[in-house]
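New to this. Please check both lines:
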Amino acid sequence: MTALPREMAATEAAPRARAGRPDWAREGADWPNRAASRFFTAGGLRWHVQVAGQGPVLLLLHGTGAATHSWRDVLGPLSEHFTVVAPDLPGHGFTEQPGADGMSLPGMARGVAALLERLGLRPGYAAGHSAGAAILVRMGLDGLIAPRKIISLNGALMPFGGGAHTLFAPLARMISRNPFIPFLFSLHAADQRIVERLLAGTGSKIDARGTKLYARLARSSGHAGAALTMMGNWDLASLVADLPRLGTALVLVVGENDRSIPPADAGRIRALVPTAQIVSLPGLGHLAHEEEPARIAGLVRELCQ
């Protein structure tokens, strides 16, 4: 059993509302698993993190544009067997945003490592969705964590095909540096139908509550801008080049209906990491853990045995 550090009982106060950022007193008033939420300063940032349960430490990292709400129905079942640690990534949800370097893949990996050090917790296992999986792999490669296993849930580990990444990254950087564009996006996101179409484009069907939570975050220009900044500073080519030296056991959980990350990417990753295990999920899309949370929680528990 893993006991939480004593200082975690005295969490820091929630950050004050800032223009363009989600307000914990308002947007967080009915936040999923709010009782597990804590605020800490680490690596120069004020973090929102949810910690629940006892047992081996399991680190959960969400993907781009999401927040801890994406684990809303997974955290409870997993906390019956693990000390679950699920932060909002830098700039996402209720965590502050660092400068551009802190929004790069290595920068976000260092940020999460600083948070873990502040909490005094060492993950025995780690699971990441989409870009969260890339951060976990980067952390493993850089010696920032040494879990027994990394579980990639529809992980975004490969660059976009063809020349798309070469074109997209500079565009995302340009957009993110113009504060007016994220503001415009947040205004458009006030129409929930736009968010519904974006979510449907992932190949997943999630519940109405999940859709409303995504829409709530998308209406925040700060959250939307952070997602754009993250994409603009992402370098997956370097991650792919380093994959062959990953020493941690890797499991690639793949939704066969994923329209965001090509399911065929899992085979390409296993060619670089021959020991990687592939687990296919027929009928599920990119947000598989939100479509069938009980199934995914059970799978994660099984994989962590």
Summary: Residues 162-176, 178-184 have pLDDT under 50 and may be disordered. The longest helix spans residues 105-119. The domain at 22-161+235-303 is CATH 3.40.50.1820 (Rossmann fold).
